[in-house]
């Protein structure tokens, strides 16, 4: 589905360390698809593989925590493709999810439901884009 995307990919993930998916996101961006990724701050700080992937594959991302502050989770596992399809479920974009876990991923094409995911993404992207969040992301990448 990522390969078929033409205009935009917006992703909210607790975890991302699956190289095949990171490469697919990178390839989409290279062919002109607008790519934006929101990742959980704490999980990002604790996962060198994710830090390396976003740097290597030039994935534009922002970091954030949950509503309860630094130790609360941004726990979404969802993507919006071309503004008309949402992917959501328990599936983290990780090797563990693909190889070891029982997971689910639901493909949603209902316009009203996809719009709810889009609005959630936009509100989180704005919050994650605050200067403090950008500084934390820069520090995490510099500490690699």
Radius of gyration: 14 Å
CATH domain topology: Endonuclease, Chain A
How is the biggest beta sheet arranged? 6 strands, mixed
User: Could you name the CATH homologous superfamily?
Assistant: Endonuclease Chain A
Helix coverage percent: 40-55%
Ends apart, CA distance between termini:
31 Å
- Estimate the mean pLDDT confidence: 91
Order of strands, widest sheet = 3-2-1-4-5-6
Query: Approximately how much beta-strand content do the residues carry?
Result: 15-25%
Give me the strand/helix succession.
Answer: EHEHHEEEHEHH
Estimated structural class: alpha/beta
Shape descriptor: globular
Count the strands? 6
The stretches of 5 or more residues where confidence is low (pLDDT under 50) are none
Give a brief rundown of this model.
Helices cover 42% and strands 22% of the residues. By secondary structure, the protein is an alpha/beta fold.
SSE inventory with pairings:
Layout: E1 8-13, H1 19-30, E2 34-40, H2 41-45, H3 48-56, E3 61-64, E4 77-81, E5 85-89, H4 95-99, E6 105-108, H5 111-128, H6 131-142
Parallel strand pairs: 1-2, 2-3
Antiparallel strand pairs: 1-4, 4-5, 5-6
Descriptive terms for the model:
Endonuclease, Chain A; 6 helices; globular; alpha/beta; six-stranded mixed β-sheet; single chain; 144 residues
């Amino acid at each position: 589905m990522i390969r078929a995307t033409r205009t935009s990919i917006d992703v909210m993930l607790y975890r991302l360390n699956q190289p095949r998916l990171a490469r697919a996101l990178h390839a989409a961006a290279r062919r002109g698809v607008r790519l934006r990724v929101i990742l959980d701050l704490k999980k990002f700080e604790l996962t060198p593989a994710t830090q390396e992937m976003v740097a290597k594959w030039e994935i534009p991302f922002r970091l954030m925590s949950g509503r309860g502050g630094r130790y609360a989770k941004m726990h979404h596992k969802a993507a919006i493709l071309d503004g008309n399809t949402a992917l959501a479920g328990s599936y983290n974009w990780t090797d563990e999810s693909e190889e070891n876990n029982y997971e689910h991923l639901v493909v949603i094409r209902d316009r009203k439901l996809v719009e709810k995911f889009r609005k959630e993404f936009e509100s989180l992207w704005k919050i994650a884009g605050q200067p403090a969040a950008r500084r934390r992301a820069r520090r995490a990448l510099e500490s690699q």
